């Protein structure tokens, strides 16, 4: 039996062998469990009714935000009950939508899923990961966007991987397990990182100007990471092997999420000394913590969930305020608040807009709405979002509710199951 040593304490782990999903012992265990579980579930008298009702409720169209890559727009769409959502392409927002990639046709049972994707900087090449039957193992394939032409390149042994194109479109950073017999839990960065401590994950991304590659090193699920970078301009002969990494942050004392950069001044979202998160600027030429500049301070109550740079000089900030999202526009240079976008009580579940874009899309959902996608043109003097697409569910209209006095009152009613009502409803 396996015994784990946790800080000097010996802890028996009699089921450690189940961590290998491909072993014959694990397969036999799962099969034996299913022989007990499946017949029990199948004899449930309301199983059919439950499935019928859940299918009915889930059968409505589902859209993602549009996002621009190169000269084209893309978006995901599911008609309602498709196993996988389909990627569509348009030449303009008003143009005809065409199927670009449909994972549903890649297998008979519909279990081949899209697991990550990345467009090259010019939007002319498309890398996409596919996994089968819920597996974590991914195969990355490539496509030329014009004509959706499949390319012969294939990357295998990929798991929990980033996909980050160099801005010249000549290569892409990704994570891969080494070719070897047996199994390994050591994740290494293909071509650019020689070895990695066990359980560390190394997602990398390119800076907005394409000059720097950033390496976010994580251990486990805690919101902390190390942050290394490499100046690709120092690679005079191109990327030929192990990169020259600069260890900007080499401890697990905070989380640092890259937002954007102006030259050597980088903007990060961090929880370092700020549990609700804030925005800071770090100059790579003078990176001592005492020299960090606060761009947007931590809010005393609201949690900063994510940040995006758009139209070169704007920042979009999404906060969690009293269990609902708020969306703000700030100035990149000063951090000043420019606008708060109008939102009802609900959540932002989708966003698109990059530094080079002049428009943003964001998707809102709530108890009353399965999805409203807004579009805002940031080149206009009046920054007023418009409803780009609104999803409706057949048979549900919150405005249909009437009181006994025949006045319409859109509302949401939530109650504890133990609540006893002693008066009639309106």
Radius of gyration, taken over Cα atoms and rounded to an integer in Å: 25 Å
Q: Structural class of the secondary elements?
A: mainly beta
The portion of residues assigned to helices is under 10%
Report mean pLDDT, rounded to a whole number: 90
Strand residue content: 35-45%
Low-confidence residue ranges: 182-191
- Report the sheet with the most strands, covering strand number, pairing sense and barrel closure: 5 strands, antiparallel
State the distance separating the first and last CA atoms: 64 Å
Question: Rough shape?
Answer: globular
Number of strands: 31
Count of helical regions: 2
Explain what you see.
This is Prolyl endopeptidase-like. InterPro entries: Pept_S9A_N (IPR023302), Prolyl_oligopep/macrocyclase (IPR051167). It holds the Pfam family Peptidase_S9_N. This protein is mainly β and 426 residues long. Helices cover 7% and strands 41% of the residues. The protein is built from two helices and 31 strands. The chain has helices at residues 24-42, 47-58; strands at 2-6, 9-13, 62-63, 67-69, 72-78, 86-90, 98-101, 112-119, 125-132, 138-144, 149-158, 163-165, 172-176, 188-189, 200-201, 204-206, 212-219, 226-231, 246-249, 256-262, 265-270, 278-283, 293-296, 303-310, 314-321, 324-331, 337-341, 347-352, 359-365, 372-377, 386-390. The strands form eight sheets. Strands 3, 4, 5, 6 and 7 form a five-stranded antiparallel sheet that branches. The protein is globular, with a radius of gyration of 25 Å. Residues 182-191 have low confidence and may be disordered.
